[in-house]
Amino acid sequence: MNYLWAFIVGGLLCAIGQLLIDKTKLTPARILVFYVISGVFLTVIGVYAPLVKLAGAGATLPLTGFGYALANGVKKAVEADGFLGIFTGGLTATAGGITVAVVFGFIIALIFRPREK
Prior knowledge:
By secondary structure, the protein is mostly helical. It has one domain. It contains six helices and no strands. Helix 2 (28-44) packs across helix 5 and helix 5 (63-81) packs antiparallel against helix 6. The chain starts with a helix and ends in a 6-residue tail after the last helix.
């Protein structure tokens, strides 16, 4: 049942993103930012944590999950470090994902060199 919920929630989040691309004049970059901010907002008001508990990776892998990780990282860092946690918590919580994205992006850039047309 966990796989079904992950598929439904993750698919719904992706379908909403595709509808935003197809039906609005929003650029993909603006939709990306909207998704991350939505994840933070839904985490702050307490809606996203139950969704993560229900859908697992279906809720944490889309971009809203990145916002969820940022918000949780800041919350934990503020509890541990006080005011300084506002600035360090988000990066600490997402450092692994950011590092993997940069490393694999670099490797792919080395393998597939773009050419002028």
